[in-house]
Structure formats: structure tokens, C-alpha cells
Amino acid sequence: MRYLHVCSNEKFIPDYIDFINRNFDSDEHKFLVIKSSKYEIEKNEQVVVIDNVKDSIRLLNKHMKESKKIIFHSLINTHLIYFLFIHKSFLRKTYWVVWGADLYTYQNKSRNFKEYLKHSLRKFVYSRIHGIVTHIYGDYELAKKWYGVKGEYFYSFMYPSNLYKEYSLEPKKEEETTFIQVGNSADPSNNHLEIFEKLSGYKNENIKIFCPLSYGNSKYRDEIIKSGKEIFHDKFEPFIDFLPFEEYLDILGRTDIAIFNHKRQQAMGNITTLLGLGKKVYIRDDITTWGVYIKYGIKLYETNSSLNNLFEKMDKKIICENIKKIKEIFSEEKLIDDLDSIFKS
To answer: Cα separation of 282 and 91, whole Å?
Structure first.
């Protein structure tokens, strides 16, 4: 075993493991997966599932010693930070795949002394990590600014969930309902209510509001459903059950406009898929994600605007350009090459 992957069991991790096994030598990769009550994952010799980090320190230490490289898929877990602070020697062969929340914990540092202490430990660990992996260079810049990161930058969008997806769409008739997706989960970082307020002026139009709420905070989810139904009545449709990928892709295919109001990098898989389907996508222009797409000449719209241009049709030439660029940037060949560069570095 040359490469140890440490991750929590998020919905896209099983597909990532399959992708690695199809395109690389599976004997060289081991996955230490922190159990989740939300998603199932199959255990085998290659995939070791643990209940939590705190009770698995010896196992963690053993596998890290045996590996040539350690790849952390997010470093949000505080017990992993404590572990790496104590076992500093591992940091020389450690790669941090930035997910977003692990980076933006910086914004909690001034809440109280406990959070400041956590920040100090993160800063110590992050600043000594060998490699930082993200396809958003702005996040790497923030890691340097906030945590004094000195590790090498590696570009990769990492997960098959971000790949361009072919999907056949039926032509839409002018008089048909306009389907608007708001957010991608029941996490409060979606800031749904701000968007509901902006969309309330269109509640008498021929629209349908989609809200994927299958994972996240259950209390927040219930608040969003209540507000959505109060404002939009039967034009509001929440999705609270986890859907198989093909069913979710079908919903994205029916979507005309998607609005994301995250105030940090998030929902990249959704955004990429929607752009690849030729959809009109709104995100905030003050987050690092915006710069990624603008760099490649991809047309986006600003969430932090009045949304007065909501029903303006996209030029067909722009739609075709967006699809073409997403297809090139988020191709399977590109992902294989980027991962290969990380493994061989």
C-alpha cells in the first residue's frame, strides 16, 4: 500500500473509490473511511471503516506508518488535527484535499477561546502539510493567507461527481413552467431565505421552486419547507429523500434556472453539472468559485444582485460555449491526469 486515503463517508466517496480502482492499481490504495449514518459503504480489504477517529488512533497510526503518501479528503475533523499535531512527522507526506468547510473554519476563530485554540492547532498543521489539492486557486490563496500554508499547490477537481455528464434534453416550449432550483442541501450555508425573499415577487408567475433538502440540518430543513410553502404554496417542491444519481440528474435536467447563495466554495458538483446541461446558473460573485468559472470564460449570473434578469433568455451561443468549456475542463481524461500527478509527485 502506497497511498492511504482518509475520508468521511460522503455520498460521492464510493464512486471515487470505484474510479481509483478502474484507473489505477487498486493494490496501491487503501481507504480509511469514517462511518456515516447517512450513507452505506462496503467494507473489504481495501476499505477499512471506522466508527470515529478518537477510538481508532492505533489503527490510524499503523496505516499512516505503512503508507508512502497520506491523502486527507477534508481536514475538518478536530481529532485528526489533534492527531497530526502530535504526530508531526506524518505531515511531510500528507496531502490535504480542500473541501471548503475545513478551510473556512478560520471564520470561527474569534468566537471564543476554545475556537481560537482549535484555529491555532489547525494553523500549525496546515502550514506544515506537503501538498494542497483544490481546483479553486483562490482557496489555496486563502489557505496561505489564513494559515500560513507553504505546501505545494496541486490542481484537481478530485471526484467523479464533478465530471461533465452527457444528458439528452427535450426542447422546452415557451409557455411551459419555469423550474427554479434553490440551493443544494439543508445546510444553513445555503441561505435559502434570502433567495425566497427575492423570488417572492415572482410567486404569481408560472414557476416551480425546487429545493433539494435530503441532507443537512433537519431543523433548518423544516424551517425552509415551512417558509417555502407559505410564500410559494403549491409552487414549492422540496426533496427530502436521498435520490439515486440518475433521478437527481433528471431533476437537474428539468431545471431552467439554478440559484446558489453560499458565501463560500460549495456545491461545485451541482454547478458543474448544471452548466454542462446548458442551464442558467446564479452564484455569488464574492466567493472563490466565481473566479474559477470566469477564468475559463464561462458565463454565470450574480446571486447577490436583484435577480431582475431572472427570466432573460440566455443566448444560444453562450449556452453552447458553456457546455463546450465544461466538457473540456471537467473531463475524465483530465481527472485521471491530475490524480496521476498527485500520486507521482
So the answer is: 38
